[in-house]
Amino acid sequence: MNINKMTFVTNMLKLYLVTDRRYHPEMPLDQQVRTAIEGGVTSVQLREKDLSEADYIEIGKSVHAVTHSLGIPLIINDHPTVAKAIGAEGVHLGQDDGDVDAARKLLGANAIIGVTAKSVEQAITAERCGADYLGVGALFSSKSKTSAKRISFELFDSIAQSVKIPIVGIGGINIDNLHYLAGHSMAGVAVVSALLDQPDILGGTRRFYQQLSEVLK
Predict the structure, then answer these.
(1) 20 to 30 A Cα–Cα from 208, which one of 118, 181, 197, 201?
(2) In CATH, what class is 3-215?
(3) Its pTM surpasses 0.90
(4) pLDDT tens, residue by residue, 44-66
(5) How many CA atoms lie within 13 A of 162 on its CB side?
């Protein structure tokens, strides 16, 4: 990965929103995303597990129209074909959700490809295969992904030290436990409920962003 791309990816990971439209069913997802971006979100991952591919593409187009207009990259969870169909900036792959090389061939050299890593071995392999960043966790118990297994901060730091590509902390991060991440090597955090499970998405995101900026100093 060239220096310019690495800088872009590192910066975009500061406050990485992962979507879940179930928190505000009364509000269109593209509106939720727009509001969160206005509050400080620096990148968005579209992660809606219960949709058919056709519906995923439809909702993805509406979300991408918002993110693109605001200069924020949109990453599609697990589905390179959906990312290709809507012109999204990249894709995020779990360990069981696809191959980095195949995604790269489909999406091209400029696409941003993230990979979930829960061990040093997975991290090194993902970097070697061409991943642009790693999602590492779960750091805390997750409200939106209850099956996610926590990893220790010691392992988190070992993973960060094992690769040169940026990492984003994931899993159960909220404004009450954010301070525990101070001093750990990360480009930013990926969150769902910390931003979307709020009556006031804009105000909640602004408060979270302000505290995150202190943690990442």
Answers:
(1) 118
(2) alpha beta
(3) yes
(4) 999 998 899 999 999 999 999 99
(5) 20
